[in-house]
Amino acid sequence: MDCLFCKIITGEIPSTKVYEDDKILAFRDINPQAPTHILVIPKNHIAGVDELNEENSAVVAYIFAKIAQIAKNEGLSDGYRVVSNVGENGGQTVRHLHFHILGGKKLDNQMA
Ligand code: 5GP
Ligand code: ZN
């Protein structure tokens, strides 16, 4: 399968890793939109939020528990944002489920 983030998981494409275990990988976004911009992905390929179901979604709870830890480790004690873009209208450019952690500055309140 030709998936950029699957290649990041295998190491075929290099990344700056922030956290890794058998289920998930967190790495720095190549084009940061905030002083801290980390992507958290499941190692199991899921295309996006639109492909989640009762069989494969346990990893999302796991990811959010790790996001809280990663944010603490990054010193984001003043808050941060977690975003997942879905599909074309949502602005998703990589079809492998990922959660952006954005922080390190006061983010604007624009939702759309
Ligand atoms: P999306 O637009 O799908 O929500 O987010 C995809 C993100 O992946 C973008 O923020 C983009 O900067 C990031 N990205 C794309 N290619 C690479 C890459 O090769 N390495 C890393 N670290 N991030 C990437
Ligand atoms: Zn993938």
Task: Write structural notes for this entry.
With 112 residues, the chain is an alpha+beta fold. It is 24% helix and 22% strand. The chain has helices at residues 4-10, 58-73, 87-90, and strands at 17-20, 24-28, 36-42, 80-83, 99-103. It starts with a helix and ends in a 9-residue tail after the last strand. The chain has 3 helices and 5 strands. It has a 5-stranded antiparallel sheet with strand order 1-2-3-5-4, with helices on one face. Bound molecules: guanosine-5'-monophosphate and zinc ion (ZN). Zinc ion (ZN) binds next to helix 1.
Summarize the structure.
The chain is α+β, with helices and mostly antiparallel strands.
Task: List the main descriptive attributes of the protein structure presented here.
112 residues; alpha+beta; five-stranded antiparallel β-sheet; 3 helices; binds guanosine-5'-monophosphate; binds zinc ion
Helix content: 10-25%
Number of strands: 5
Largest sheet: 5 strands, antiparallel
Ligand species: guanosine-5'-monophosphate, zinc ion
Average pLDDT works out at: 97
What percentage of amino acids are in beta strands?
Answer: 15-25%
The radius of gyration computed from the alpha-carbon positions, rounded to a whole number of angstroms, is 14 Å
Distance between the termini: 32 Å
* Class from helix and strand fractions: alpha+beta
Count of helix runs? 3
Stretches with pLDDT under 50, minimum 5 residues: none
Q: Which word captures the global form?
A: globular
Strand order across the biggest sheet?
1-2-3-5-4
Give the ordered list of helices and strands. Answer: HEEEHEHE
